[in-house]
Amino acid sequence: xxxxxxxxxxxxxxxxxxxxxxxxxxxxxxxxxxxxxxxxxxxxxxxxxxxxxxxxxxxxxxxxxxxxxxxxxxxxxxxxxxxxxxxxxxxxxxxxxx
Length: 98
Fold this sequence. Notes:
Layout: H1 2-9, E1 16-19, E2 22-25, E3 31-37, H2 42-47, H3 50-64, E4 69-76, H4 84-97
Parallel strand pairs: 3-4
Antiparallel strand pairs: 1-2
């Protein structure tokens, strides 16, 4: 579902185009903050390389490709069963980004 949304919103002619075969991001000057939630711990995601995969596909493959400057990428772990302390920590991390 998310891929379909991204494909429709970040579309050719709006978010990027090709000039003489060279890709050009049309959203240059825009900033992005990305938030990913997942059910596993950070250690589990890092162990299988998922954080790097998410960074490659979203930071570079979508937002960077379209010209965005990615300011921060949050990875909130164990979000399927969040504890109060985790929610407070995530809130503090988000506020510190601004």
